[in-house]
Design brief:
Layout lengths: L10 E6 L1 H13 L5 E5 L2 E6 L4 H30 L6 H21 L6 H5 L1 E2 L11 H4 L7 H22 L1 H22 L5 E2 L3 H20 L5 H18 L8 H21 L7 H29 L1
Antiparallel strand pairs: 1-3, 2-3, 4-5
Length: 309
């Protein structure tokens, strides 16, 4: 109770239980609003002087909105923590490995009498030449050596499993593929003339960005310390710095773009509430779209290469 002898409270601003009034009195004390806590029969009341009435009611409205927001955030945290991971991680990883091995075999065998690396590698077009858009897809499936292949296979499966458990086998792998494709398209547009690149690493870093962007957006809504809220992005940047640079043959620009596009895509996933359902149909549809993109890209690449020969 406020003991100011000059205060003559006369305006009732809240009536309720003693516990509720005591809680709200702390709000008034924190905001320097003089008040009086009085017992009225079976209930308690908070009263203020007339000149403080508008301010007191405004503080109560603010506190009420903040409590509702806190309750909503708590429900969101509980929902996220209780969400069961998706299955299908092994099937998605098997599909990823199968694509890389099939393309590697075709490269070594020169299937159809075509140089698959020349037909599908990412190339920054010369001035006045149109971009061959399929290369943004096909280059993700090509590798320059067994070490390159197995490195991207291992890291790709690791990122794919995490995305699969969070988004589902179809939506997760489609997101990784789209992040790699979009990053390659940007690289073809801004890269130095004559620049060429191959490898799934752009999509691999897209998976890291996808996870970082999604978790970052989710945690930004929580009333936690800034380090906790920004931890996913900091972790992703750390992985990019540790794994994304290396020898002169490493496509640093592609790695950076893959990560950045993945972060944006993960942010969009979080805002859109993806995935909205656990039904198999959206996952199968997304998986089918991903397969069609890869097959369609190679059909175009091989068609053009065959015509040139």
């Amino acid at each position: 109770m406020d003991d100011d002898p000059d205060l003559q409270p006369s305006v009732l601003v809240f009536r309720g239980t003693r516990r509720a009034c005591a809680e709200l009195s702390l709000v008034f004390e924190a905001r320097d609003v003089p008040y009086e806590l009085a017992e009225e029969g079976a209930s308690w009341a908070l009263c203020v002087a007339p000149e403080f009435a508008a301010r007191a009611r405004d503080e109560l409205r603010r506190y009420s909105r903040e409590r509702r927001s806190d309750a909503q955030r708590q429900r969101e945290r509980e929902e996220l923590s209780s969400r069961k991971p998706f299955g299908g991680a092994y099937a998605g990883s098997l599909g990823y490995a199968l694509v890389l091995f099939l393309v590697a075999y075709a490269v070594g065998d020169s299937t159809f009498g075509i140089d698959w690396v020349e037909a599908g590698a990412l190339q920054v077009p010369a001035p006045g030449h149109a971009m061959e858009l399929w290369r943004a897809i096909t280059s993700l499936t090509l590798h320059q050596s067994p070490d390159h292949l197995f490195s991207n296979l291992a890291f790709g499966i690791a990122g794919g499993v995490l995305c699969t458990r969070l988004f589902g086998y179809g939506i997760g792998w489609l997101g990784i593929l789209v992040a790699g494709i979009l990053a390659n398209l940007v690289e073809m547009g801004v890269g130095p003339q004559g620049h060429a690149a191959i490898g799934a690493s752009t999509a691999v870093f897209g998976s890291i960005g996808l996870l970082s962007g999604y978790a970052w957006r989710q945690r930004l809504t929580l009333r936690e310390r800034w380090l906790y809220r920004w931890a996913p992005l900091i972790g992703g940047v750390s992985l990019l710095a540790a794994l994304g640079a290396g020898s002169e043959h490493v496509d640093v620009l592609g790695h950076l773009l893959g990560f950045l596009v993945g972060v944006v895509l993960g942010w969009v996933y979080a805002l859109a509430g993806i995935p909205r359902t656990r039904h198999a149909a959206p996952q199968n549809l997304a998986a089918g779209i991903g397969a069609l993109l890869i097959v369609g890209g190679w059909v175009m690449a091989l068609g053009v290469a065959g015509a040139r020969h």
